[in-house]
Design brief:
Elements: E1 3-13, E2 16-26, E3 29-34, H1 41-48, E4 56-61, E5 64-65, E6 77-80, H2 92-102, H3 107-120, H4 136-147, E7 154-158, H5 166-177, E8 184-189, H6 192-196, E9 201-206, E10 209-215, H7 216-221, E11 227-232, H8 237-243, E12 245-252, E13 255-261, E14 271-272, H9 277-290
Parallel strand pairs: 3-8, 3-9, 6-7, 7-8
Antiparallel strand pairs: 1-2, 1-4, 4-5, 9-10, 11-13, 11-14, 12-13
Helix pairs in contact: 2-3, 4-5
Domain ABC transporter: 3-232
GO molecular function: ATP binding; ATP hydrolysis activity
Organism: Natrinema hispanicum
């Protein structure tokens, strides 16, 4: 299975492009699509799900152009959009039965899939509860269940953890990880820990362009031996921000503990620390803005 994107672009107005010149190939596993808000992630998702047509370039699924032949991918596609709607007066079981019928599943197949997916998403005990009683995190897990009803070969999820508390975010990431076998999963988000804990490869978008598509390990290696932590007086923090890519700050009694990226120690007392994916991501975005 392979999703191939070649020189893809979407133009909204004369000088406004949602995405531009994106080329990458995704095979089995979870591919994190990471970028700040407005980077073009949702535009790309809408093209991959055949909701929107691109202005330039092509997308192929197993060698077939899905822009010209969208039915080549629709039967094997599962999609959880950023704004997932439900029918609040239906129970979970009724809702999944309805969605299964829309996708042409017979009653026996639908029943078996619903049993399997409520276990996968940890929703077995609430099958008979109405959806209007579900928390935000539970609704998102319902979204994953409905996206998997047809056992899709291509699963696309757009910002699935936005607005969730930490516990629900962990549950949702676990559910996604458990779905990744024998399928291509595209996880679009601006939340770095979501992809750090689930993705095999990461594609970074910024300003509508692809910055990199590589493994988590390779991306982190880009900032190896370049991450430092040290404490500075609060009055010096703005100067530090002007000089370096600051990854995070924490208030301490002695001042502000700063974590940053630098090619050499920024101060005599700066301690070199192991890099994280968030460090590497922020560095990639910063490098793009300096170009």
């Amino acid at each position: 299975m392979a999703l191939c994107i070649n020189q893809l672009g979407k133009q909204y107005a004369e000088d406004i492009w949602g995405i531009r010149d994106i080329t990458l190939e995704m095979d089995e596993g979870i591919h994190g699509l990471l970028g700040p808000n407005g980077a073009g992630k949702s535009t790309l998702m809408q093209i991959l799900t055949t909701v929107m047509k691109p202005t330039t370039g092509s997308v192929s699924w197993n060698g077939t152009d899905i822009v010209e032949s969208p039915d080549a991918v629709r039967p094997v596609l599962g999609y959880l959009p950023q704004d997932f709607g439900i029918y609040p007066d239906l129970t979970l079981e009724e809702f999944l039965e309805y969605m299964a019928a829309l996708r042409g599943l017979d009653a026996e197949t639908a029943s078996a899939r619903i049993d399997e997916l409520t276990k996968l998403t940890n929703l077995v005990d609430v099958r008979t509860r109405k959806l209007k009683t579900f928390s935000g995190g539970m609704r998102q897990r319902v979204g994953i269940a409905q996206a998997l009803l047809n056992d899709p070969e291509l699963l696309i999820v757009d910002e699935p953890t936005v607005g969730l508390d930490p516990e629900e975010r962990v549950r949702l990431r676990s559910a996604l990880s458990n779905t990744a076998t024998d399928r291509v999963v595209v996880l679009s988000t601006h939340i770095v820990p979501d992809v750090e804990s689930t993705a095999n490869k990461i594609a970074i978008l910024d300003d509508g362009r692809l910055l990199t598509h590589t493994s988590v390990e390779a991306l982190i290696d880009n900032v190896a031996e370049m991450v430092y932590e040290f404490v500075v007086p609060r009055a010096e923090l703005s100067t530090i921000r002007d000089q370096y890519q600051v990854c995070s700050t924490v208030q301490r009694s002695a001042g502000v503990e700063v974590r940053l990226i630098a090619e050499s120690p920024p101060t005599e007392d700066a301690e070199q620390v192991p890099p994280t994916l968030e460090d590497a991501y922020l560095d990639a975005i910063d490098q793009q803005h300096e170009v």
